[in-house]
Every structure is written in C-alpha cells, then in structure tokens.
Amino acid sequence: MTEVTMNIIPGGEAPCFQLVVCGQAADAPSSLPAAESTLMQALCCRLAQAGAAFLQDLAVDGVPGRGWCAVTAQPTVQGLQYVHGAFELAALGFTLLARQYPGCVSVQLGDGDFNGQPAA
Questions:
Q1: Are 80 and 67 in contact (CB under 8 A)?
Q2: Which of 44, 93, 100, 102 to pair with 76, CA 20 to 30 A apart?
Q3: What 3-state DSSP class applies to 112?
Q4: How many structural domains does the chain have?
Q5: Is 115 part of any domain?
Q6: 20-78, pLDDT tens digit by residue?
Q7: What is the C-alpha to C-alpha distance for residues 87 and 44, in angstroms, rounded to an integer?
Q8: Residue 78 has what DSSP assignment?
C-alpha cells in the first residue's frame, strides 16, 4: 500500500509543509505509480517556480526504486498561501487516488486518516 502523509509543522513566521509518500501497492493497477509520481513532480515544479520571495527553503528527499519520497517547504510570510495551496492541491490529488483505489492508497492529512473517506 502507498501511504501518503501531509504535515503542517508550526514554527517561525510561517509553518513548514511536508508531504511524504512511501510504499508501493503490489496489486495496484500499472497506472497508479505514474499518477503518484506525476503528483509529486507537479508539487516540486510548482514550488521550484515560487522563488525566494515565496520560499525560504525547499527539500526533496527520496530513495529511487524504493517507493519513498518527501517534499518539505518553508514558505516566507508572503508565500504562505502559495505554498499551502500547492500542498493542498497535491493532497487533493492523492485523496482522489485513495477514493479510486482504496486498497492501494492511504492518505493522512494531519487531522485524520482519510483512506478515501472524510474523517468522522
């Protein structure tokens, strides 16, 4: 199963955002890894376009072929909405994948485990 976790870490003038994707579903359709990869690449590209006015720090970590990737961004005060929006869009994409493939993708967005369903 692919497990996706989004965290908003308080601190400084603006919170830090982190999205971690790990694992691979053995019985997943062949298109699922491509969709997951596309969402992470879109997030990274969007953040890379932000520039110094919106982003203080950006870290992308991963292990090729191991199914693990983490994107962490520290926005400036001016970039808070931009960075938050980029992470929300990626999280929404993963939530939609979890709804389509509930046995293959699990999403936790800091305040509850969605697994394709809203938290109770």
A1: no
A2: 93
A3: coil
A4: 1
A5: no
A6: 998 877 777 878 888 888 999 999 999 999 888 999 999 999 877 677 889 999 999 99
A7: 10
A8: T
